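Hello forum,

I keep getting stuck at the same step: I have a sequence, I want structure tokens, and every attempt I make locally crashes halfway through. Rather than fight my setup again tonight, could one of you with a working pipeline run this one for me? It's a single chain of 319 residues.
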Amino acid sequence: MAVGPSTIGDFSVLPISIPPLPSFPRPATHYVYLRRNAPKIPTATDSRSLFLTNVPIDSTELHLRHLIASLVGNGRFESATFEDEKRDANPVADAQPVQAARLLAAHSKKRKREGEDAERAREEEAARLPSTWTRPLRRSGGTAVVLLADAKSVEQVLKAVAKVHRSKKYPTWGVGEVHDAKRIPPLGSVWLKAHNRLSYPDKDALQAAVDAFSALFTKREQEAAEIAKRLRNEPDEDGFVTVTRGGRNAPASRNEAEEAKRKMLERQEKKREEMANFYRFQLRERQKEEQAELLKRFEEDRKKISAMREKRGKFVPES
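Reply #2:
Ran it on my machine without issues. Output:
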């Protein structure tokens, strides 16, 4: 068997042995790539987290717990979050209108009260439709973030991965976990039969979920309407009051607000130009009056000089 590299870039390569299965009755080697977690937006737990990619498609938290335990022993693993779980963190987000979602998200910090998060979580749980799968399958080449007990555990796991390459004793995937039906539901035909059964949920349970969804939708729409009503009388950071459609409680869309703001700025600019033109008109009129006054004084002075010359007559100096 060819031996692959122990590292690729920033990633350490962890070979794991996949035991034979009825669908593929031969052992196989799968490669998981891991490194210290370094997300674009840092969090408080990054120093004790590992980022894993190319996790097996049947991965569960128990699989990863057993994998870490086989490397550094028990008591180091705390939790695991998979890529698809992050993406579906709010499965009932559509239980509110788009306008309500934007308003609630923008002003939720001002509205939070003690116990409100727990109440919302209960409402969303009640509005969630029954699952049709007993066990999810991960995307091929998917990722996960494993949270360990401390930063020292991260260093120990990375050292253990390097040691695996030297000893050639690869950890076995799913041993002691995947065969425990009480902890991890099995795959294969049993999994598909369970999916077929769950695809036809109890009518009462389904109706209860639909009713909870409708109630949550209505509640959040009312909350958004209350926020919109308050915003109509509160200026924002720039001093503008939220633009609303006539006869509606919800604020106008962002495009409409920007269009109204643009028109207002155009009116202000036009008014400034008109005032400037008015001042220029006054300046021109004043200049004309000054020129007329100068001409009038010049003509008066000219007449005075002519009169003085006529009165004095022709001057003849004495010899």
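The longest strand covers residues 28-36. If your local run keeps crashing, start a new thread with the error log.
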